[in-house]
Amino acid sequence: MKKTVGFYLLFVLLSMVPSGCLDRGRLEAFLREPRSPVAGVEYIVLPPDTLSLSSLHITEINGILQQVRPDGKIVLPLLGEIYVAGKTPKEIEEAILEASGAYYKKADVTVVVSQYNSQKYYVFGQVSRPGPFRWTGCDTLLDVLAVSQPTNLAWPERIQITRAPQPTKGGYLVTGSEEEREKQEEEYEAAGLTEAGSNVIIVDLKRMIEKGDLSQNILLLPDDVVNVPPNPFAAVGLALQTVLFPTRPVIEAARMPYEVEYAVDPQKRYDRYRD
Q: What confidence tens digit (pLDDT) does each residue in 144-201 have?
């Protein structure tokens, strides 16, 4: 048992040692050209974004607010259903004008996204506030980490950002023979990508904070994944906890209904502490 635990801990420590990957080369894939204070990509409308429409000539839709339905459509008076998911506001304007051609000889429309609800980036790992966050177009890595708050278990020198190729939603079937997939993985590796074709960069948050080096304070894009790994000592502690106390998550899960019951019932909580 001791040998198994020792080997496991050695493996964890070795896996946490910096691998010396070409982060400087990969950084180029994350930088916006020309340099800009915003991400500079066109916003793609998806459910459940909310659109605001205005028109001088199509009075039926002037001043209307519409939330994009789960099926990707909005419903407009007179014009009916319009499919808008996956389109830019300009493309939605063109779709509305095309639909209005049957009713108006002269038409105009302006589409504005009034609530940005669909585009998100994700934060995982040793942070106080993990989860999805709304993408605003000017979210830098420093902004994200200031909000999500890395804990004392975090490894600030090894913050990982992953930018996956499209499609990033809905999944996709990997096609081709095993030989073709292996060849593609080799091409990805030669290009500095992961075997799934994602760009990955390791950023030193500590250097940002202590030295003021913001050269890697990249702007995030929709569906970027930020992972804050545990530092080597925390990784050892987490590994020990898994090996020595494997039933702890089960026990905590079993206790949860009782804890919730006491929390929502003041009388039971009072009786518990009185006893």
A: 999 999 999 999 999 999 998 876 777 666 677 777 777 777 676 666 666 666 788 8
Using alpha carbons only, what angle is made at residue 172 by residues 171 and 174, rounded to the nearest 5 degrees? 135
- Determine the topology of domain 2-40+119-237 in CATH: Outer membrane lipoprotein wza fold like (3.10.560)
Q: What pLDDT digit, counting tens, does each position of 47-94 carry?
A: 999 999 999 999 999 999 999 999 999 999 999 999 999 999 999 999
Angle of the 2-16 helix axis to the 232-244 helix axis, nearest 10: 150
- Could you tell me where the beta strands, DSSP code E, fall in the chain? 50-54, 64-67, 73-76, 80-83, 110-115, 120-125, 131-134, 159-163, 199-203, 225-228
Q: For domain 50-115, say whether CATH 3.30.1950.10 is its number.
A: yes
DSSP annotation of 3 reads: H
Give tens-digit pLDDT for 113-160: 999 999 999 999 999 999 999 998 889 999 999 999 999 999 999 999
The model's pTM is: 0.69
DSSP helix/strand/coil, 42: coil
Q: How is the chain split into domains, by residue range?
A: 2-40+119-237, 50-115, 249-274
User: Three-class SS of residue 120?
Assistant: strand
Q: Which candidate, 202, 127, 191, places its Cα nearest to that of 161?
A: 202
